[in-house]
Amino acid sequence: MRILVIGSGGREHALLTALSRTSSGEHDLHVAPGNAGMRATWHDVAVDDPAAVTALAREIAADLVVIGPEQPLVSGVADALREAGIPVFGPSQEAAKLEGSKTFAKEVMATAGVRTARAKQVTEPDMVKVELREFGPTFIVKDDGLAGGKGVVVTDDVREAVAHAKAVIEGGNPALLETFLGGPEVSLFCLVDGETVVPLLPAQDHKRAYDGDEGPNTGGMGAYTPLPWLPEDGVQRIVDEVVVPVAHEMVRRGIPYSGLLYAGLAWGDEGPAVIEFNARFGDPETQAVLALLESSLADALYATATGTLADLPPLKWKDGYAATVVLAAEGYPANPRKGAEITGEGLDDSRIVLHAGTAKGENGGYVAAGGRVLNVVGTGATLEEATKVAYDVIEKIQLDGSFYRKDIARPAIDGEITVGPSR
Ligand code: AMP
Ligand code: GLY
Question: Residues in domain ATP-grasp (predicted)?
Answer without folding.
Answer: 106-306
